[in-house]
UniProtKB/TrEMBL annotation:
The keyword Repeat does not apply. Transmembrane segments: none annotated. The lineage of its organism: Eukaryota, Metazoa, Chordata, Craniata, Vertebrata. It comes from the Eukaryota. The gene is Nfu_g_1_019709. One of its GO terms (molecular function) is zinc ion binding. Residues 122-158 form the SWIM-type domain. Keywords: Metal-binding, Zinc, Zinc-finger. This is SWIM-type domain-containing protein. Signal peptide: none annotated.
Length: 274
């Protein structure tokens, strides 16, 4: 084994027996510790992903590592791993081709708690036909070669493969349209904001694996027609807003006199709607 093996903090933290097992695994399939590999060594092409199916996930998580029971897998949508997947916590899914028709899949998984912490690193070795050989994650629970983060990556691979096969596409445009785990939301006009909640997007993630891309994603509507400030429609809207929602933030930008000479006469201060 190369000396670079010792450069992995994950490897150095293992006990003697686990180190030898880990070293034998990497020596047989990869040749170098995946935790010290650079992203430039991997490919983002979907065609390189192993064809992982639901049966392969169940075989690895239930029969090989005993991480879940068969009863838990029957209700897989309740698992923490599946919630991580549909929440968009699996990021930077990349693949490296290995000898003997094997694949090394690497991903970063945002933590379910403490979002300010660095994402976890997770890698999986699988055959091209989808059979999962081994997996590791640098979280504290992955010494058994399985954890919720490994399971989340497997769910992500399976969804990406379905999207790839349905759309017969290998480009990044065919990636699964899951809610992204964004930390900042930029300001935008109301007409351009997607008001579909993350919960509604998580309910049926399968709808994002039928080959749809961002260009034909449902929920896109034509822009709202512009209403001229001071027009009858504009004033009627504000009057109804004042009557029904007197504490609306929108009314904070308006100066409405106690006794208006006409029903729709509004006096605007320095901060007004454009």
């Amino acid at each position: 084994m190369e000396e670079t093996f010792a450069e992995s903090p994950y490897y150095e933290a293992l006990d003697v027996d686990s180190k030898q097992k880990y070293k034998d695994l990497i020596s047989r399939y990869v040749g170098r510790d995946p935790f010290i590999m650079k992203m430039s060594e991997f490919s983002k092409e979907l065609r390189h992903l192993p064809t992982v199916e639901a049966v392969d996930i169940t075989d690895y998580l239930v029969l090989q590592t005993f991480f879940y029971t068969i009863q838990q897998m029957k209700a897989y949508k309740r698992l923490e791993a599946y919630k991580l997947f549909v929440s968009g916590c699996v990021q930077n899914l990349v693949t490296k081709r290995l000898p003997d028709d094997c694949r090394l899949v690497f991903a970063r998984v945002n933590r379910s708690q403490g979002s300010g912490e660095a994402p976890l690193k997770t890698w999986i070795i699988a055959k091209e036909d989808g059979e999962v050989i081994a997996a590791h994650c640098n979280c504290t629970a992955s010494l058994s070669e399985s954890c919720s983060h490994v399971a989340a990556v497997l769910f992500s691979i399976e969804a990406e493969v379905r999207a790839r096969d349905v759309g017969s596409c290998t480009s990044a445009q065919c990636r699964v349209l899951m809610p992204s785990n964004e930390k900042e939301v930029p300001a935008a006009p109301v007409a351009e904001i997607d008001f579909f909640s993350a919960k509604s997007k998580k309910l049926k993630p399968d709808c994002s694996t039928d080959g749809r891309t961002a260009e034909n994603e449902p929920g896109k509507f034509p822009p709202c027609p512009r209403v001229k400030r001071g027009s009858e429609t504009y004033c009627r809207f504000l009057e109804n807003l004042r009557k029904n929602c007197p504490n609306s933030v929108a009314l904070m930008f308006l100066t409405i006199p106690q006794t208006a000479p006409k029903e729709h006469d509004y006096y605007y201060g320095s901060n007004t709607f454009n």
